[in-house]
Amino acid sequence: MSWAVLGALRAAPALDRPDLLADAVEHALASLDPGDAARVGVAEIDPALADTAEFCAAYASPLESSANCVVVSGRRGGHVRFAACVILATTRADVNGVVRKRLDVRKASFAPMAEAVELTGMDYGGITPIGLPAGWPLFVAPEVAAARSVVIGSGVRASKLAVPGALLASLPGAEVVDGLAREV
């Protein structure tokens, strides 16, 4: 297991610490193959340090090993379509190019915070690709999929997960999408 991306933090198997997971995340991890679920580590953090830059600085976690999960929405025919994108923290999602085309909408944008929180059942600043609503597409940047391990949210602001990139790319609804992320 490669949980070293969590820097100075001590990690435990995520399913051993359900108190550090959003309910949807715990249920999604429990539904994985037990061998895969055991590869996901969780570490408790100060919730005030959940934002990526603050987290990396406080806990000596490399920024290039952190991934962000952003919720995107767009309308088509009066219906709102949602997707989640997982990109490295050193990049930015191509929302109005690649994501808009994948969602097949005229215009895509980051979903409003309150709506993203309500629909995912996760805390803002802790939204993670593990445990997203059924049917949502999950677009994963190739750099994330290829990473030995990345740090992502746990669904709550009080912890972070260390997850193999290949595991993220194998989640339900996941698709590795070339050009998803652009360098900042």
From TrEMBL:
Transmembrane segments: none annotated. It holds the Pfam family tRNA_edit. It comes from the Bacteria. Residues 47-168 form the YbaK/aminoacyl-tRNA synthetase-associated domain. InterPro entries: YbaK/aa-tRNA-synt-asso_dom_sf, YbaK/aa-tRNA-synth-assoc-dom. This is YbaK/EbsC family protein. It comes from Pseudonocardia hispaniensis.
